Amino acid sequence: MIKERIRELKNSFKKFNIDGYVVPKNDEFFSEFSKVDRLKKISNFSGSAGYAVILKRKNYLFVDGRYTLQAQIESGKNFIITDYSKILNCNLFKNLKLGINPKLFVSNQINKFFLKYNRIEIIEKDLINVNSEKNSYYLKPFFSLKDNVVGESYKKKINKVSTFLKKNKCNFIYITAPENVAWLLNIRGFDNPISPIPNCHLLLDNKKGMYLITEKKKANNLIKEKKISSKQVIDTSNFESLIKKLDGKKIMIDSKTCSIFYENILRKKFQILKIEDPIYYFKAIKNKVEIKNMINAHILDGLALTKFLYWIKKINQKKITEFEAQNKLEEFRKKNSNYLYPSFNTIAGTGSNGAIIHYRATKKKTKHIKKDDIFLCDSGGQYKYGTTDVTRTICFNKPKKKIKDIFTRVLKGHIAVASVDLNKLNTGKKIDTKARKFLKKINLDYKHGTGHGVGFFSNVHEGPQSISSSNNIKIREGMILSNEPGYYKKGKFGIRIENLVYVKKEKNKLYFKNLTLAPIDNDLIDPKQLTYYEKNYLFNYNLKIYSKLSKFLNKNERKWLLASF
Prior knowledge:
By secondary structure, the protein is an alpha+beta fold.
């Protein structure tokens, strides 16, 4: 099937006078999770980031370190798997004319990756046929969140953005990141498979006037609530006509999500200012109501995960598969009526599959969990109202000394991040080194960031903050991040310990406070490696879990949880 699709694509090269075609992971809304996945359709690669470049005689798939193993397994038969960094102005396609769909790329991507050695041909027709997938979109209308859920009215939020426009002497902002529209208008939707983000754009002026760019049907609830009028809802096909009628000189666009297609339309009318959408920063700072809701969501999620951990370690005696394990965890989450659906595809990898950082088991592709395996489970949920993401690594027999050594070093890095002095180390770049310190002492490391920002009942991954070697965004009160150092031995095992944390301020000092409530496997820890402070940290963390969850656990579950102290 994949070979046929590649052949069909290559047959169109002559018609469009191109030497190759570039297929990104993202859809036209640049969503992390989408019902339309052109990259998977043409390459079979299911990871969250990558590019395929299909040439007349060769096919390349560019991925980062998280997906090298996965890409080789899923796409290695038809594609040359290449490190993502090599696409930067690479000369693999020197002097070739490459076709692109202008709705799927921003100009910065093209300038950064291709224009040094190649020519780009804009092709309006989508050469990866996804019409059937598009027709399967949910047509459910968007819905509003109440102020007592989000903590701030949409009118106050619009005022913030309007003030930002005035300060920058700009007439309009075209908000193309759907999650930013969701935050601004306090709305959510059903357009993405595991995220409540509504697929739409918003045009806002410095006098608080706005146009919502989407299908009218999806705005029905908003019109009924008088949040927006029918005349303010503009279908995508009428976007260019709208732009021609507007008065003003300058428009602000987000260089990460405003596609070449829309940029070209706007350029005909306005002077374009490429300034990062200020909403990324506004929504990164969660208010007290959002934090409270996230805390409550993590109590519900912690209960489900703790019951699952007890079940898989102590109750389940069968040789179950990874797929069966992730379904069992989903069963525990579904027992709570506030649970909606996963916040991302669960990663349940046993033994060698745990070393595939973003592995996904399916009914057809799964392994039995053996007693001597190390089992890594990374999962999360969308709740009313909150978003969770947690990873636990567990064993079922007495682990080897080497495994315990590495796990404990990962744990020490995890505790170092959780305990960091944010008044001294106030960026992700500075914090990242603390997480890797103990692994690097024995020349080990991991090929992913230590943490990502997390949305409130939104995308499980959001910026601009993260804990990584390249992130210089200042960590501020109200931000939520993951804390997830790990280690992966190819063909053997994977280890990761992940909690979500939020930034709290007391007596003018900032510090991380754990949101996640689930025990860390005591059987994998070498206590001799832990300092007094680290042991005390673990005791207090387990005590907090017990105090929050014990009343919801049965006698045996409580006894097991106490034993983890």
